[in-house]
């Protein structure tokens, strides 16, 4: 029995800034952002839009009534949760209308959380082939105005429906995991923004990939030639490229160029969105399969997941016959093209807005599933039935 991704979709908020504009505002060479880290645009969210808002927009369009009746587990991977106790997955379960006899919870380990959810879902489906699991990676990456991490911010969500006999990607049973207690990026309880050791984080990311890649090759007797493409966690698009080049420096030039070409296809959407934290790897997967020029049914795609702190995992899957019919390239491109560009001044004003969870207040936001009221510390979402 095959288990894997049957449906996949992403959503980003309807506003963005241009990285050249940001560079000019911060007094730096635009090439530092567009070439140095490989970003052209950055998704920007309003204070009334949180991880539930994005998760709903990513998941709802792809789920049928039959899916909602079959889903018996809802998992949200996030590092920007909205409550220290209650999982956003519980709220998502209600708003989506998933049948009541389901398990719903959140997973946190920096940007690795969604992959943990995917693997949990895979094991569940192997034991319960008739069920379906919804995994959503939803995050808001923020480092502060004019901070070193500002150009690597972003926001949005990716939703994956994990089932038996999937129609997009069937997972191989070849996972290699790595855990190291390293403080390269962390956010202590009570801190608004993360603490980052940028140089160390880059170093650990690259070394983690090399370790899990080499161990995977040793265990499964594979080489780069066995993979049609490899997707990476993408905190910024140049990061995955650095790891790819470091990991395949001993491969011949033909293999390197082939994988680099596929990598460029996998970052098409991320260049326009920025960092989705837990969703970045899976946004890269969507970008790859919707924009690749040479992929075909049966091709093996490698996936490298990384969460600072640090947990890494390398695994793979094979494209299923007819996978092209399950993709949504036109709607995803339309979503990105329809966004409104903000001036840097408008972006900074949005960034500084805060919600006081202890103050009852109503809000106005045209986006569905945005927060329309705070009452007695509870978030109420606009669902079209107010």
Describe the 3D structure.
- The chain is α+β, with helices and mostly antiparallel strands.
- The protein has two domains: 220 residues, Peroxisomal Thiolase, Chain A, domain 1 (3-Layer(aba) Sandwich); 150 residues, Peroxisomal Thiolase, Chain A, domain 1, CATH 3.40.47.
- 35% of the residues lie in helices and 25% in strands.
- The protein contains 13 helices and 18 strands.
- Strands 1, 4, 5, 6, 7, 8, 9, 12, 13 and 14 form a ten-stranded mixed beta sheet that branches.
- It is globular, with a radius of gyration of 20 Å.
- The mean pLDDT is 97.
Protein topology:
Elements: E1 3-11, E2 15-18, H1 19-26, H2 31-36, E3 41-44, H3 51-59, H4 65-70, E4 71-77, H5 88-96, E5 103-107, H6 113-127, E6 132-141, E7 154-164, E8 169-171, E9 176-179, E10 185-186, E11 195-196, H7 198-220, E12 229-232, H8 237-247, H9 253-266, H10 270-273, H11 280-291, E13 300-307, E14 311-319, H12 329-337, E15 340-341, H13 344-352, E16 361-362, E17 371-375, E18 378-381
Parallel strand pairs: 2-15, 4-5, 4-6, 12-13
Antiparallel strand pairs: 1-7, 1-8, 2-3, 6-7, 8-14, 9-14, 10-11, 13-14, 16-17, 17-18
Helix pairs in contact: 3-5, 7-8, 8-9, 9-11
Write a compact overview of the structure shown.
This protein has 13 helices and 18 strands. It has 386 residues and is of the alpha+beta class. Helix 5 links the parallel strand 4 and strand 5 (103-107).
Keywords:
386 residues; alpha+beta; Peroxisomal Thiolase, Chain A, domain 1; 2 domains; ten-stranded mixed β-sheet; three-stranded mixed β-sheet; 13 helices; 18 strands; HMG_CoA_synt_C_dom; hydroxymethylglutaryl-CoA synthase activity
């Amino acid at each position: 029995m095959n288990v894997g991704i049957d449906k996949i979709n992403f959503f980003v908020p309807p506003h963005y800034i241009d990285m050249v504009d940001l560079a000019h505002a911060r007094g730096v060479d635009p090439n530092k952002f567009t070439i140095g880290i490989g970003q052209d645009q950055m998704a920007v969210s309003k204070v009334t839009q949180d991880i539930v808002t994005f998760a709903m927009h990513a998941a709802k369009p792809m789920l049928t009534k039959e899916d909602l009746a079959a889903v018996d587990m809802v998992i949200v991977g996030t590092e920007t949760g909205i409550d220290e106790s209650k999982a956003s997955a519980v709220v998502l379960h209600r708003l989506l209308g998933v049948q009541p006899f389901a398990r719903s919870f959140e997973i946190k380990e920096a940007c690795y959380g969604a992959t943990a959810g995917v693997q949990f879902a895979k094991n569940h489906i192997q034991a319960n082939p008739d069920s379906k699991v919804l995994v959503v990676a939803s995050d808001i990456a923020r480092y502060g105005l004019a901070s070193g991490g500002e150009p690597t911010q972003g926001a949005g969500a990716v939703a994956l429906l994990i089932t038996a006999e999937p129609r997009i990607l069937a997972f191989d049973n070849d996972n290699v995991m790595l855990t190291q207690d390293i403080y390269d990026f962390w956010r202590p309880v009570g801190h608004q923004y993360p603490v980052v050791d940028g140089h160390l984080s880059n170093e650990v990311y690259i070394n983690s990939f090399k370790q899990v890649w080499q161990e995977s090759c040793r265990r499964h007797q594979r080489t780069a030639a066995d993979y049609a493409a490899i997707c990476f966690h993408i905190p910024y698009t140049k990061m995955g490229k650095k790891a790819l080049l470091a990991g395949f420096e001993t491969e011949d030039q033909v293999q390197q160029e082939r994988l680099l070409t596929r990598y460029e296809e996998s970052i098409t959407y991320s260049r326009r969105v920025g960092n989705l934290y837990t969703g970045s790897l899976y946004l890269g997967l969507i970008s790859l399969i919707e924009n690749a020029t040479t992929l075909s049914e049966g091709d093996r795609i490698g996936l490298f997941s990384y969460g600072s702190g640090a947990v890494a995992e390398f695994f793979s899957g094979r494209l299923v016959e007819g996978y092209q019919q399950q993709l949504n390239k036109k709607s995803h491109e339309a979503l990105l093209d329809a966004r409104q560009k903000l001036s840097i001044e408008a972006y900074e004003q949005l960034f500084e807005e805060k919600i006081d969870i202890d103050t009852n207040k109503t809000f106005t936001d045209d986006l569905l599933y945005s927060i329309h009221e705070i009452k007695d510390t509870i978030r109420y979402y606009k669902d079209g039935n107010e």
